[in-house]
Structure formats: structure tokens, C-alpha cells
Amino acid sequence: MNNTVRHLLVETCLRLVIVGLDMAKEESQVQAFLDPSKPYVISFSMKHIKEELDHY
User: Which pTM value belongs to this model?
Assistant: First the structure.
């Protein structure tokens, strides 16, 4: 688990975090928000392969 994801999990305990997923056939885009207008972390992409899914 990378530091960004770990930090997000800690913050989740303290407040509601909204996670947006843009799912496509081979890859998804992920973005977290503290409220609908304020991105929490930069967006990232995740390929739909076992190695990347196991990473998260």
C-alpha cells in the first residue's frame, strides 16, 4: 500500500471521503474528494490486471 492510499485510509476515519471511479474496459480512473468541489488527492489510473488490482 503506497503512502497516498495509507493517508487516505487514515483520513477516512476522521471524515467522509467521496471516491469517484471512471471505469472503462481496460483501465479505470480514480479520484477522491473531501466534498464534491475539492479534490483530495491527484487522480490516478489503474489497469484491470491482477498485479495492479492486488496493489490496491
Answer: 0.50
